[in-house]
Design a protein that fits this description.
The structure is a single chain. This protein is an alpha/beta fold and 341 residues long. 42% of the residues lie in helices and 13% in strands.
């Protein structure tokens, strides 16, 4: 099925696989946003779903030299004040939680920056002259994560909290372009790691584990399985896993309807790497043997981009194996309409 290009094109009517293949281009996009070159005391990033993923990625790379918090809610932390940079991110510009959080941040006198493709958020930014990174419109938020990542890096570089981030992203785009070609639909299953992983997952519920560096990737795999393949999935990270969830695998039955996926990086803390190995040994026979995915590249950024993009392809191929078009999210749209009633 996964080598039948006619079937793929029929099911993937909006060409999500084509978008995944071209994601490297998003890392080179230049945003016309002008931030005052003034460091805040802290940064709060408000966003939901795919619009919050870039912020999560930024905690692994490039990292932050001041307090940074992601807000996935209607409200914001009490400490927000006029020394806070508040970044409101919504691809559509109409996410009600983010719009609500923005109103609270404005009332507290926070400095505001906007990341969006349009909608109410863009209208507010234009009316109040807020700095705004305008994302290219017309795609699903989960397919625009690297645009958002580039936009956030632009803001961070302009306020002086990171250096050379944009240059490094541009350099990494070539790496991503090269590795992505191995997962294209016209590469046969016997040579296509993404297709092979999708075949291991189909019919089961994925549980994705990582260390702290790759947790943004683990979370992206989880939401991709949810939105692209319409498949329930979970994720967690080491070392927290060993303090609770670890024991959950020890009960009967040994044959569980899950597939375990370990996202491993050679750049993780050595103690985290050891935990993966010991856990695999101690849980042998008590859970499905993990599919071990070893991140490729020479830097944290490359490991992150490689693993995230592989997960994009795996989830899209899983959608096709499930007989589904990966792009529509009809139930989410119905929920939004019901919330407006």
């Amino acid at each position: 099925m996964l080598d039948d290009l006619k079937y793929i094109h029929e099911r993937d009517a909006q060409d999500a696989l084509g978008l995944a293949e071209k994601q490297w281009q998003q890392l080179e996009y230049n945003f016309a946003i002008n931030m005052p070159a003034q460091k805040p005391d802290n940064i709060v990033f408000a966003g939901m779903g795919g619009s919050a993923l870039a912020a999560l990625m930024s905690t692994s790379w490039p990292g932050h030299d001041l307090p940074f918090e992601i807000c996935r809610n209607y409200d914001i932390p009490k400490y927000v004040d006029d020394k806070t940079l508040f970044i409101a991110s919504s691809y559509s510009g109409n996410t009600e939680e983010t719009l609500s959080a923005l109103m609270v941040a404005e009332a507290k006198g926070a400095r505001i920056a906007i990341i969006t493709s349009g909608g109410k958020l863009a209208d507010i930014a234009k009316a109040k002259n807020y700095p705004m990174a305008t994302l290219p419109a017309g795609i699903q938020p989960r397919y625009a994560v690297f645009y958002n990542f580039r936009a956030l890096a632009t803001i961070l570089e302009q306020i002086g909290t990171v250096n050379s981030a944009l240059e490094e992203l541009s350099q990494a785009s070539g790496f991503l372009k090269d590795i992505t070609s191995a997962w294209r639909p016209d590469v046969s299953t016997k040579d296509n790691y993404a297709k092979q992983l999708a075949l291991e997952i189909v019919g089961k519920s994925p549980v994705v584990y990582s260390g702290p560096l790759l947790f943004p990737a683990a979370y992206k795999w989880k939401i991709n399985f949810n939105e692209n393949a319409k498949n329930i999935a979970w994720c967690n990270q080491y070392p927290e896993f060993n303090h609770n969830e670890f024991l959950g695998w020890t009960s009967s039955p040994a044959e569980k309807p899950y597939v375990v996926i370990d996202l491993r990086s050679s750049l993780e803390n050595l103690r985290v790497q050891k935990r993966f190995e010991i856990t695999e040994r101690l849980l042998s026979g008590k859970r499905p043997a993990p599919q071990i995915v070893k991140a490729m590249g020479t830097s944290i950024l490359e490991h992150l981009l490689w693993t995230i993009t592989l997960g994009d392809f795996v989830s899209l191929y899983l959608a096709l194996l499930n007989g589904l078009n990966p792009t529509p999210v009809d139930l989410i749209e119905k929920l939004k309409l019901a919330m407006d009633e």
